[in-house]
């Protein structure tokens, strides 16, 4: 299992990352069912995304994606008159051969992608998988392997079957665990000779900030979140055990959204507050990597009146189903203040904090902190002593196509160069064991936080616009050629 990397060696997994609900499209092709992501409307910098549903009296409504508090008996779904960007996204469903060829041209060693659960089990609770969905991913994996690209597959990336939401509240109910395990076993057995790297839940810690996005739970009170978190953590552990039983060579990791948190001042109250907020991220990783609930979380539940327990069987499952490696997203850092007079004034990737006066920010207000990535790698490696992968990192920006059909995204190159240098220092100077790096949105996709195509991350421009216009043409950006050079030089040529 152990692979020692000195700087970036020939085994380092360079690549890119996407998610089915933001990239794939074809939302009703091949008998696919409706996912929670399919019910999320398009938004913008100033207009938040919403989730659509029908009330008992038949009225169609849409509520804020973040912080939903729906206590009525409603039915979630997709309704006429709303724009749902996941339905077409970047149309990878019909462009996968072209897109994977572009990844191969850049020299990808690894492609992090997700399987849409509802493409395999449309409602989530079927007894048998959907063969058309299984065949689609057979084609994807075969195309990747043709070019020597290793798939890194996320099993649940921000999309839960709406059928389970409407049936019993999805992850707030423990019956969802068995449905998920049926799905995991189906894809694990089907692709056991094609996929060896797996992730269980994408940014599992984001349940705390958006229960709908991460778990399909609209009632986001402390008890519901704790119940859903427990069910997902047990499902994650059982998935690790299942995938190891199917193929002992499988390497199964977790994935958290991770951003360094700095105290806003050296006041002890700020130090303590920063530690407390950092634990909100570490908690999920602690359970998945160490195999037990940490005392600080149990005491928090006790203080907040959350009813929680684990029986002996559940404790054994968590202990036996620890992950093989740690993966995480890193985009930005935040400062934390305990002073009630200092209000949070920046947010990004579902994290909130105080602006750092020493850092610049993107057009969307996400502060740029490459040195924070080196710190993050050291914090995680020191805490868990498990191999790491950076599976999301990138710059969302407004890219312009010039009169020569070119995109000169030097700002993206600068961002990525500085973060790759930070990774190199963590490996070479600090001795961190790092397996790979998959830049987020390697080909343009829909933004998860705002639902925009306008906010682009990729090395390849996709000609789809937020007004639903565009022909889907793929255009190589300047960063495409730069990243190709980075990979071919094993990260040594960053000019």
Which descriptors apply to this entry?
single chain, 495 residues, alpha/beta, TIM Barrel, eight-stranded parallel beta barrel, three-stranded antiparallel sheet, 14 helices, 17 strands, 36% helix, globular, disordered N terminus, Family 1 glycosylhydrolase
CATH 4th-level superfamily: Glycosidases
> How big is the Rg?
21 Å
User: What overall form do the CA principal axes indicate?
Assistant: globular
Strand content: 15-25%
- Spatial ordering of strands, largest sheet: 1-5-6-7-8-10-14-15
Do you know the CATH architecture? Answer: Alpha-Beta Barrel
* Sheet/helix structural class: alpha/beta
How many domains make up the 3D coordinates?
Answer: 1
Poorly predicted runs: 1-5
CATH topology: TIM Barrel
Main beta sheet strand tally, sense and closure? 8 strands, parallel, barrel
- Overall pLDDT score: 94
- End-to-end Cα distance: 33 Å
Q: How many beta-strand segments?
A: 17
Assign a percent range to the helix content. 25-40%
- What's the number of helices? 14
* CATH class category: Alpha Beta
Family: Belongs to the glycosyl hydrolase 1 family.
Pfam families: Glyco_hydro_1 (PF00232)
Protein name: Family 1 glycosylhydrolase
Organism: [Clostridium] ammoniilyticum
């Amino acid at each position: 299992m152990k692979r020692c990397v000195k700087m970036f060696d020939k085994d380092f997994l360079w690549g890119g990352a996407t998610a089915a609900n933001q990239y794939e499209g074809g939302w009703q092709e091949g008998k696919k069912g409706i996912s929670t992501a399919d019910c999320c409307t398009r938004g913008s910098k100033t207009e938040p995304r919403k989730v659509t549903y029908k009330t008992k009296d038949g009225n169609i409504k849409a509520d804020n994606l973040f912080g939903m508090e729906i206590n009525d008996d409603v039915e979630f779904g997709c309704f006429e008159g709303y724009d749902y960007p996941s339905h077409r996204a970047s149309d990878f469903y019909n462009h996968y051969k072209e897109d994977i060829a572009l990844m191969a041209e850049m020299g990808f060693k690894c492609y992090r992608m997700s399987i849409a659960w509802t493409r395999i089990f449309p409602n989530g609770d079927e007894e048998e998988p959907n063969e058309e969905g299984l065949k689609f991913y057979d084609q994807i994996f075969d195309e990747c392997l043709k070019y020597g690209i290793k798939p890194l597959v996320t099993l649940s990336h921000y999309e839960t079957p709406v059928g389970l939401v409407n049936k019993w509240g999805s992850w707030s109910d423990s019956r969802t665990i068995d449905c998920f395990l049926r799905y995991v076993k189906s894809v694990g057995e089907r692709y056991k000779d094609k996929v060896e790297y797996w992730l269980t839940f994408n940014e599992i810690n984001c349940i705390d900030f958006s229960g709908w996005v991460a778990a399909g739970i609209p009632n986001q009170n402390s008890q519901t979140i704790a119940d859903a978190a427990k069910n997902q953590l047990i499902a994650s552990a059982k998935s690790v055990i299942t995938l190891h039983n199917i193929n002992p060579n499988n390497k199964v990791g977790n994935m958290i959204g991770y951003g360094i948190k700095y105290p806003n001042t050296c006041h002890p109250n700020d130090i303590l507050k920063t530690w407390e907020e950092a634990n909100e991220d570490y908690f999920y990783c602690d359970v998945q990597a160490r195999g037990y609930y940490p005392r600080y979380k149990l005491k928090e539940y006790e203080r907040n009146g959350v009813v929680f327990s684990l029986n002996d069987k559940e404790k054994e499952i968590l202990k036996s189903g620890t992950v093989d490696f740690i993966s995480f997203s890193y985009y930005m850092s935040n400062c934390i203040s305990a002073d009630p007079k200092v209000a949070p004034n920046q947010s990004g990737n579902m994290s909130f904090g105080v602006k750092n006066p020493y850092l610049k920010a993107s057009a969307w207000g996400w502060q740029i902190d490459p040195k924070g990535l080196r710190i993050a790698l050291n914090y995680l490696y020191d805490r868990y002593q498990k191999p790491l992968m950076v599976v999301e990192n990138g710059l969302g920006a407004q890219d312009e196509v010039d009169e020569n059909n070119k995109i000169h995204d030097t700002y993206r190159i600068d961002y990525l160069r500085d973060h790759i240098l930070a990774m190199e220092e963590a490996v070479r100077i600090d001795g961190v064991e790092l397996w790979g790096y998959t830049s987020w949105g390697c080909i343009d996709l829909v933004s998860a936080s705002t639902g925009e195509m306008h906010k682009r991350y990729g090395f390849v421009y996709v000609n789809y616009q937020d007004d639903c216009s565009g022909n889907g043409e793929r255009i190589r950006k300047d960063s495409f050629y730069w990243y190709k050079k980075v990979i071919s030089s094993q990260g040594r040529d960053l000019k």
